[in-house]
Specification:
Helices cover about 55% and strands about 0% of the residues. The chain is mainly α. The protein has a domain of about 55 residues.
Length: about 110
């Protein structure tokens, strides 16, 4: 809803000049990869499955059509997505770079 007085209208704010915002933006740009083992993935999957089951139990006891139910439905869907992605990572075999070296050429080089 717009106010009648233009002086009361909120003006857009440039957040890039804020030092706190700059620090957060620089932190998010400094992404460092981490080593995750298969056992770590299995532990994450176990934790997420238990969290999903708990959310389903709570949703089943919540009133139908409530805000809590809608939040839990979105949470359960998000956890299911994360579980499927972790299952995909576990099923995918790592690429052996050394074996894919020179012998990976399937066609002869062009003249």
């Amino acid at each position: 809803m717009r106010s009648a007085s233009p002086a009361m209208e909120p003006s857009p704010v440039d957040l890039s000049s804020n030092p706190v915002t700059k620090a957060k933006m620089s932190q998010s740009a400094d992404v460092h990869p981490i080593d995750v083992t298969t056992e770590d993935l299995r532990t994450m999957i176990l934790y997420l499955r238990k969290a999903r089951e708990r959310a389903i139990d709570i949703r089943d006891r919540s009133p139908a059509g409530s805000y809590l139910e809608s939040v839990l439905i979105r949470t359960i869907d998000g956890i299911a997505l994360e579980l499927s992605q972790l299952d995909y990572l576990l099923a995918k075999k790592p690429v052996d770079v050394r074996a894919a070296g020179k012998h990976a050429q399937r066609m002869r080089p062009a003249i």
